[in-house]
Design a protein that fits this description.
The structure is a single chain. The protein is an alpha+beta fold. The chain folds into 3 domains: 12-103, OB fold (Dihydrolipoamide Acetyltransferase, E2P) (Beta Barrel), CATH 2.40.50; 137-229 and 242-272 and 421-548, 2-Layer Sandwich (BirA Bifunctional Protein, domain 2); 290-411, Gyrase A, domain 2 (2-Layer Sandwich), CATH 3.30.1360.30. Helices cover 29% and strands 23% of the residues. It contains 17 helices and 22 strands. The chain has helices spanning 56-61, 120-125, 127-130, 134-156, 197-205, 243-262, 274-281, 298-301, 307-310, 328-339, 369-379, 394-411, 457-460, 489-498, 503-516, 531-538, 569-574, and strands at 18-30, 35-41, 44-50, 70-79, 92-103, 160-161, 179-181, 189-191, 210-218, 230-239, 271-273, 295-296, 314-320, 349-353, 359-361, 386-392, 422-426, 431-434, 439-442, 469-474, 477-484, 524-530. It binds aspartic acid (ASP). Aspartic acid is lined by residues 195, 197, 481-483, 526-528.
């Protein structure tokens, strides 16, 4: 028997029992007459003691030990003289009668404790050591609990968990595909799925009625903190449902997972049309933990001789509560912040609402106190508040104010990680114009159904057509999205036409789907949630990396196994591939 107990298990009630523990040496403290070893495993830490009473043969073994050795420790449980209330095993220790090294360890490249001295790169390279740390392991246990809760809920609702293929077909819509050469089909490639979209729709045509899968998906995109080239989705599809049914079912899922895993009761999710999200929050993923809504103050500001505003398409403002005390330096910093290329504003106008009811603005030359009072009334500013105004073309300014709103809220501590504010953003546009390709792209994907009342607009004003598409947003993060699907081959063909596909191209890429629609396709709809993002939100983290056991770095590399890597010439030959590497500029 390797062990009778884990390192997190023994308590005062176990005193005098003979036990065998196994685990890693966290640290050794040598006080001459007495030596303590902290023995660690997944379940906790138990203190081992060696003192004058310990047999010499055991004490001798000590010399061999070092950090991260795997040992087996045999001894008797006894009460500690000085207790540690911070850990559950803190009242006891093991008086050693035998110690066995099961596996030695070199000196680890960083210390394996909660506050490690290891930088990101080192920790990634030795991820298996990082996984021994409590924080990392706890995140992954949290993730496992979430997956379990998802399965319990969906299984109870009669969803069928079904695997779909990983080697599929490259399609031109969406993000860039990862491709895999086929040895048996010379010159041909599989693609890794960006999502199981078409398969889950085909499962509905196959009569499955309710499907889900916790599934790896792959997108060859540039990486950010919340993106990895491979990521996990909770992917779902249902037949004979409307948008409302989907939103209810999956609101139930998210609430259930919050309750099961974090013991948090979440209120009903409000529905917000996309247009409202854009106008009020400057974003299709509004953070609704705080208000600070965007106001259109074009009427209040134009025609007073201030050229910048007079020539602008849109003048928008937010009210930063209690910020009238901002110093010159703080305001300059904000001005530089909005001028960054990502935000794209040209400058920032401010109005301070003084405690005495007067106003101080950066445009006092053009606007009277009465004018400024009008602005304040419009944005709901009162004494002590700061009004921040941006002007320019509408989309840029809404987006910039959306960013500024988040920045100020972060500064004011309004984005508390323990508060969760979910909402459904609905009525997305079906299509969005793409300047580069000079054609419409599907905003969600080409299988999304237009709202029935907007179908006629497809021919006259395609940009105005709203989709039966929805996103789940929590705290300003897009956690999931989906849509009601087209289930009729003519409408699907029309959609491809609007997206600039010729009939032949549509047939070549998606013929199987349009064909399947001819054999009795049920009305269906679905959704997918970003499982990594949801897990990192539950764990209170900013990056999804720490909820992934073996993540890739920002260049998409796994630095532990050193991948991607070159392959042997014979392997290339076998695949009938020839490299033609061009030097990158
Ligand atoms: N396949 C979509 C996605 O991956 C989700 C859906 O429409 O169900 O975003």
């Amino acid at each position: 028997m390797f062990r009778t107990h884990t390192c997190g298990e023994l308590r005062i009630a176990d005193i005098n029992s003979k036990v065998i523990l196994a685990g890693w040496v966290q640290r050794i403290r040598d006080f001459g007459a007495m030596t303590f070893i902290d023995l660690r495993d997944r379940y906790g830490i138990t203190q081992l003691v060696i003192n004058e009473e310990t047999a010499d043969s055991v004490a001798k073994e000590l010399d061999k030990l070092g950090r991260e050795f795997v040992i087996q420790a045999i001894g008797a449980v006894r009460e500690r003289s000085s207790k540690n209330n911070n850990i559950p095993t803190g009242e006891i220790e093991i008086a050693l009668t035998e110690i066995k090294v099961l596996s030695p360890s070199e000196i680890p490249p960083f210390t394996i404790q909660d506050n490690t001295d290891g930088g990101d790169d080192l920790r990634m390279k030795y991820r298996y050591l990082d996984l021994r740390r409590n924080t990392v392991r706890e995140n992954l246990i949290l993730r496992a609990k979430m997956a379990h809760a998802v399965r319990s809920y969906l299984n109870a609702m009669d969803f069928i968990e079904t695997e779909t293929p990983v080697l599929i077909k490259s399609t031109p819509e969406g993000a860039r595909d990862f491709v895999v050469p086929s040895r048996m089909n010379e010159g041909e490639f599989y693609a890794l799925p960006q999502s199981p979209q078409l398969f889950k729709q085909l499962l509905m045509i196959g009569g499955f009625d309710r499907y889900y899968q916790i599934v790896k998906c792959f997108r060859d995109e540039d990486l950010r903190a919340d993106r990895q080239p491979e990521f996990t989705q909770i992917d779902c599809e249902m037949s004979f449902v409307e948008q409302k049914d989907i939103l209810e079912t999956f609101e139930g899922l998210i609430k259930y997972v919050f309750k099961e895993v974090l013991n948090i009761e979440i209120e009903d999710f409000p529905w917000m049309p996309y247009s409202e999200a854009m106008e009020n929050y400057g974003s299709d993923k509004p953070d609704t933990r705080f208000d600070m809504l965007i106001n259109n103050i074009s009427n209040e500001t134009k025609g007073k001789g201030f050229g910048v505003f007079d020539s602008a398409e849109f003048i928008g403002a937010i009210c930063a509560k209690g910020c009238a005390t901002y110093t010159r330096k703080q305001l300059d910093k904000l001005t530089n912040w909005v001028k960054r290329p990502q935000i794209g504003a040209k400058g920032l106008v401010y109005v301070k609402c003084n405690e005495d009811g007067s106003f101080k603005s950066s445009v006092d030359k053009f606007y009277s106190q009465d004018n400024l009072k009008e602005w304040a009334d419009k944005v709901g500013a009162t004494a002590g508040d700061l009004i921040l105004v941006l002007s320019g073309d509408k989309n840029t300014i809404l987006n910039a104010l959306g960013g500024l709103r988040l920045e100020i809220a972060s500064q004011l501590g309004l984005r508390n990680k323990d508060t969760f504010k979910p909402l459904w953003v609905v009525d997305f546009p079906l299509l969005e114009w793409n300047e580069e390709s000079n054609r419409f792209h599907a905003m969600h994907h080409p299988f999304t159904a237009p709202k029935p009342e907007d179908i006629l607009l497809l021919d006259t004003d395609p940009g105005k057509v709203r989709a039966n598409a929805y996103d789940l947003v929590i705290n300003g993060v897009e956690i999931g999205g989906g849509s009601v699907r087209i289930f009729n081959s003519e409408l699907q063909a029309k959609m491809f036409d609007k997206l600039g596909f010729t009939a032949e191209q549509a047939q070549a890429q998606f013929g199987f789907l349009m064909n399947a629609f001819k054999y009795g396709a049920p009305p269906h709809a679905g959704i997918a949630f970003g499982f990594d993002r949801l897990a990192s939100m539950f764990a209170g983290l900013d990056s999804i990396r720490d909820v992934i056991a073996f993540p890739k770095n920002n260049s998409g590399r796994d630095v532990m196994i050193d991948s991607p890597s070159t392959i042997a010439a014979e392997q290339l030959d076998e695949l009938s591939l020839k490299l033609n590497l061009k030097k990158k500029e």
